[in-house]
Specification:
single chain; about 290 residues; mainly alpha; Lysozyme; two-stranded antiparallel sheet; two-stranded antiparallel ribbon; 11 helices; about 5% strand
Length: about 290
Amino acid sequence: MKKLYMIALLAILFANSLMAQKGPEKLYYTVPTVPESIKFGGETIDLKRADRYERMDREMIAFSYAHSVTLLMIKRSTRIFPQVEPILKECGVPDDLKYLMVIESNLDPEALSAAGAAGLWQFLTATGRQYGLEVNDNIDERYNIEKATRSACKYLLDSYEKYGNWMTVAASYNAGMAGITGKLNDQKADNAMDLWLVEETSRYMFRILTAKLFLENPEKYGFWLEKDDYYPYIAPKKTVTVTDTINDLATWAKEQGTDYFQLHLANPWLREISLQDKSHKVYKVAIPR
């Protein structure tokens, strides 16, 4: 018994010795490298200037360590981008403007801000209606990915015609054209990146640029995902054209071979259990697989 006790004691002492040699594990936090420049919408943006470097550095650090938000953006991108990219191309808007949408909504199709901005592109009610979207309690096309993207393209192109550079266009999407035009005139500037702006809009431009870096090359910034980790885009089984009221979408969904939950996921612009269409307007309802 004494011999066994001595063996156990020696084993404990040996283990403690190893732990003492190893010591506490150290955590290391790295800082992502800010590039000297970045291409956005076909325009080269110089990031070497001290203020631009620090503003970009701040957003890259935030993206690096806000792990859950950044991961969800990356995972959702494979579902949302295939639906948006063809529309941007068709409308003549640079593909990079999809990263504005990333910052607006974190790629959540049902995002709703405290100010009432809704959908991937975060249209306010008045702006959505101004750009052709139907917005009411029953139908809210700010949540219709195709229609909201087309309306966003109209806004972006109107803004580009006014300002002639895409970063100023991006700033106007956040602060409004009237607000940015006033700042440009007051400060005798040509580009929103050279303006003294409220923090939200000032950071907004650099957050868009950071989203481009991280979503184009997540591994470079420490986000390693397997192919199966990404959320897939599954095209609808079919699209049904509706020109009349549907009083019970749950029953109608069953008739189409699905259920109300799946129908709403595929058509978040349907905001109630019915579709009211007294004027016989044409709606296209996606039927999920």
